[in-house]
């Protein structure tokens, strides 16, 4: 869809507001009609209809011209502010330089990944503004599907209708054990071979979804000792010797006090990527700023995310 003209959309959204504004500026119905590209009789009828509906006069005659009444003068600054607000809103819909992007993302991506991506993008397009929401996987996708966000940085990626996605980086899942665990030196393990209590993330977290899918694949039901809010907490609990966990491999190596063992027997990957509304969904329109940031993330994300996640 072509980006509509800002002035054209403002005319559609606020014809009556612009009548008041132009009449106040020109103090002449004919001149106001010319500025609005409207026949003078049409403008006169529209102005009369507006005053009838309001139940008060907004203009009065002054010889050959007109001027705002006291009521019109009281209303005028509010009209002008409304027109300015509408113009800014339309600019957000149509412009790349002053648009707004609503981004939802996983808490694990909020420490380094999102700031790095935003910093790089805003160095190129400083006028684009962002609304940021940090939340768990299920909530993030729900917000995106409901139209509360333009893009989601999340994992795993959805397969449902209406959403499109691109993988930016794929992490391997590992069995994370305390460093002195009897199985810590094994080359690979199946979750079913570990009899310890497990530390899992809470339901609704993306890693928990992947863990449940993996355990279903190997027909294993872990004994759960703790359910953590985030990956970092789960790692810390393992390091304290309070259980074992299934987590993405840590880019900088295992946390002190833990070891990470490759998993066998089932799907053990965590794709991290960007998700957006498929063409034709989400109202059928994607603001240029959103498309610009999505393209930037798809281009730059695979280079920066591997070193910053986990």
From TrEMBL:
A Pfam short name: LysR_substrate
Keywords assigned by UniProt, alphabetized: DNA-binding, Transcription, Transcription regulation
HTH lysR-type domain segment(s): 17-69
Keyword rRNA-binding included in the entry's annotation: no
Domain of life from the UniProt record: Bacteria
Family membership: Belongs to the LysR transcriptional regulatory family.
Protein's name according to its UniProt entry: LysR family transcriptional regulator
């Amino acid at each position: 869809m072509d980006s509509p003209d800002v002035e054209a959309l403002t005319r559609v959204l606020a014809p009556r507001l612009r009548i008041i504004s132009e009449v106040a500026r020109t103090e002449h119905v004919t001149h106001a009609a010319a500025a609005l590209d409207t026949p003078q009789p049409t403008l006169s009828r529209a102005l009369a209809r507006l005053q009838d509906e309001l139940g008060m006069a907004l203009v009065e005659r002054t010889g050959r011209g007109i001027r705002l009444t006291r009521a019109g003068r009281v209303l005028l600054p509010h009209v002008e502010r409304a027109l300015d607000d509408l113009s800014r809103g339309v600019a957000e819909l149509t412009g790349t330089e002053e648009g707004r992007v609503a981004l939802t993302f996983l808490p694990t991506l909020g420490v380094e990944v999102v700031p790095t991506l935003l910093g790089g993008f805003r160095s190129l397009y400083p006028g684009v503004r962002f609304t940021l929401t940090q939340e768990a996987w299920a909530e993030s996708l729900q917000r995106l599907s409901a139209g509360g966000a333009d893009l989601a940085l999340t994992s795993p990626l959805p397969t449902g209708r209406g959403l499109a996605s691109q993988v930016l980086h794929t992490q391997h899942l590992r069995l994370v054990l305390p460093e002195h665990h009897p199985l810590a030196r094994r080359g690979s393990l199946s979750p079913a071979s570990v009899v310890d209590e497990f530390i899992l993330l809470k339901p609704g977290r993306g890693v928990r979804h992947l863990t449940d899918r993996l355990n279903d694949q190997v027909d294993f039901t872990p004994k759960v000792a703790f359910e953590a809010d985030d990956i970092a907490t789960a790692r810390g609990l393992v390091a304290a010797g309070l259980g074992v966990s299934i987590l993405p491999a840590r880019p900088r190596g295992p946390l002190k006090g833990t070891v990470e063992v490759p998993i066998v027997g089932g799907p053990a990957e965590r794709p991290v990527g960007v998700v957006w509304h498929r063409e034709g969904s989400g109202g059928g329109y994607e603001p240029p700023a959103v498309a610009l940031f999505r393209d930037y993330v798809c281009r730059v994300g695979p280079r920066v995310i591997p070193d910053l996640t986990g």
